Amino acid sequence: MTGRTHDLIAFTAMSAVVATQPLGSMTLATAFVAFTANMLGALAPDIDQSTGALWKKVRFGAILGKLLYPIFGGHRHISHSILGLVFFGVVSKLFLILISNVLIVDIEVVWWAFMIGVASHLISDTFTHSGVPWLFPIPVKLGIPPIKALRFHTGSFVEKGIVFPGLILANMWIFYAYHKDIIEFLRTNIK
Predict the structure, then answer these.
(1) How far apart are CA 150 and CA 3, in angstroms?
(2) What is the mean pLDDT of the chain?
(3) d(CA 93, CA 96)
């Protein structure tokens, strides 16, 4: 999937969590950093691809991506697996603990937002033609539906013309259906 589709999927997943789950109070800074972490998490599994959307946003990103490519075993290998999910979880948690004295936000909220982004990336790539090696190092890429010919290609009409607009409609529905809960959350919990 394209980077912008991954971002929208992560935003949709985060919107669904905010709308449906009881969240405690948080500062505006925590909400902003959590949103940013969610967007970074949506792109993080493509850290193994020098042309990934994340690297396009970083100076010398293509060079860094080329250096990381062999470490992760290529695109859609370890970073797109359960092992990769655990890796991103542990590394991001350690990083957040390391900067917790400088960045004064609720680290747990930020970490969960990041992980929702990472998980949404892996789940959404499962629907693409290439599939995802969930059980890495076992060299089998799993996809939904199981028949590869029925899955869509990255950047195809299905992604751009059906999935992306469908996600926009899903967000509109979430905000319409839960607008009272979202407004109440913003009014009482964001300080």
Answers:
(1) 22
(2) 87
(3) 5
